Amino acid sequence: INMKKILLAALFAGMSFGVSAQEGFVNPAGQGYSQGGFKGPTPGVSSVAQVKTLRDDAWVVLEGNIIRQVGNELYEFKDATGTINVDIDDKRWMGQSLSPSDKVRLEGEVDKDWNSVEIDVKTVRVLK
């Protein structure tokens, strides 16, 4: 009988902990948190030449021009220091259209393979 009480107490304690843990993810207004993020210094703009020396998965910001498409979702990007291939998923364009003469800001991650470096682009923004 004593073992049943201990088991029941442990079960109820676990259930109440689970409920309180879930409640921790709700703000006082009773709704989920809105999208937030870090508000502070971010990486500065890199050059193509710098990017080619960075480690795999490094976060980069590039400014220059997309000069041509070289494959499905693969483009050639150019700045004053050189060119590099950038992989831009169709969803990343966010309805924006641009030409080789438009200056853009790309944010993404370095993707290093055995003998190539490209950028996996997460954000495309046309600069005015």
Class per helix and strand makeup: alpha+beta
The residue ranges in which pLDDT falls below 50 over 5 or more consecutive positions are 16-27
Q: Give the radius of gyration.
A: 24 Å
Fraction of residues in H or I helices? 10-25%
Query: Mind describing the biggest β-sheet?
Result: 5 strands, mixed, barrel
The strands making up the biggest β-sheet line up spatially as: 1-2-3-5-4
Please tell me what the overall shape is.
Answer: elongated
Mean residue pLDDT: 82
Tell me what the structure shows.
With 128 residues, this protein is of the alpha+beta class. The protein is built from 2 helices and 5 strands. It has helices at 2-23, 48-51, and strands at 59-71, 74-79, 82-88, 103-112, 117-126. It has a 5-stranded mixed beta barrel with strand order 1-2-3-5-4. A hairpin with a 2-residue loop joins strand 2 and strand 3. The relative contact order is 0.15. Mean pLDDT is 82; it is low at 16-27.
Please provide a brief summary of the model:
The chain is α+β, with helices and mostly antiparallel strands and 128 residues long. It contains two helices and five strands, in the order H-H-E-E-E-E-E.
Salient structural properties:
2 helices, 5-stranded mixed barrel, 128 residues, 36% strand, alpha+beta
Reconstruct the topology from this structure.
Layout: H1 2-23, H2 48-51, E1 59-71, E2 74-79, E3 82-88, E4 103-112, E5 117-126
Parallel strand pairs: 3-5
Antiparallel strand pairs: 1-2, 1-4, 2-3, 4-5
